[in-house]
Design goal:
Sel1 repeat family protein; TPR-like_helical_dom_sf; mainly alpha; single chain; 5 helices; globular
């Protein structure tokens, strides 16, 4: 399965992340849904990469029904996780050099979503 193999990065130096959109043609819809189900379980247990994959799934409608509001909510959760990692001096199970591409890609997604969503939608999520 895609996410169990850990092929999240394009290189061994962890500088570029593989995007979910790059896998959509190589997986059947059923396998993609299963991969996102797995990623959501990972995300619910504070996996940074799981949160990113669920964000992508809702943004692009891959393995989930497309929902920019849910994608934005997951993206904000990634920001929260980033802040907690920084506050804890990254004493979690991640190597610091693997985090930067995740944060950069999340920011790219978040910027795109902020252009799509209305101010009311964005504010409602930030208040909840």
């Amino acid at each position: 399965m895609l996410f169990q193999q850990g092929d999240h990065y394009k290189d061994n130096e962890f500088k570029k992340i593989n995007k979910l959109t790059e896998y959509r043609k190589s997986l059947t819809p059923e396998d993609l849904k299963l991969a996102i189900d797995y990623a959501e379980i990972m995300a619910e247990h504070s996996s940074i990469i799981g949160i990113l994959r669920v964000t992508e799934a809702y943004l692009y409608g891959l393995g989930r029904e497309q929902d920019p509001v849910k994608a934005y909510a997951w993206s904000l959760l990634s920001d929260y996780a980033k802040q907690k990692i920084i506050e804890s001096d990254n004493n979690l199970a991640w190597y610091y050099y693997q985090l930067s591409p995740v944060w950069e890609y999340n920011k790219e997604i978040q910027t795109r979503l902020e252009q799509i969503l209305t101010p009311v939608q964005k504010q409602a999520l930030k208040m909840s």
